[in-house]
Amino acid sequence: MDTFEVSQHRACAVIGQPRSTKRLPPTAPTEPEQHLRARLCQVTQEDHPYGYLRLQALLVREGHVLNHKPI
User: Fold this and answer.
1) What is the pLDDT of residues 25-34, one digit of tens each?
2) Does the pTM of the predicted model rise above 0.70?
């Protein structure tokens, strides 16, 4: 943007990058998120074909705090 003196909108359009990826830097997952992701991976590696609603119920029963959105 500085080199060619173009707007962020134009620069992102040229390279095919969504502008939303340039707004905030990515953040590292917190400890509870890492534990939750590890547990999700562990459950999905088992031979049980659980859907997202059942996974969400399982995690809530185990004491994980989830927001209102599906996993």
Assistant:
1) 778 888 888 9
2) no
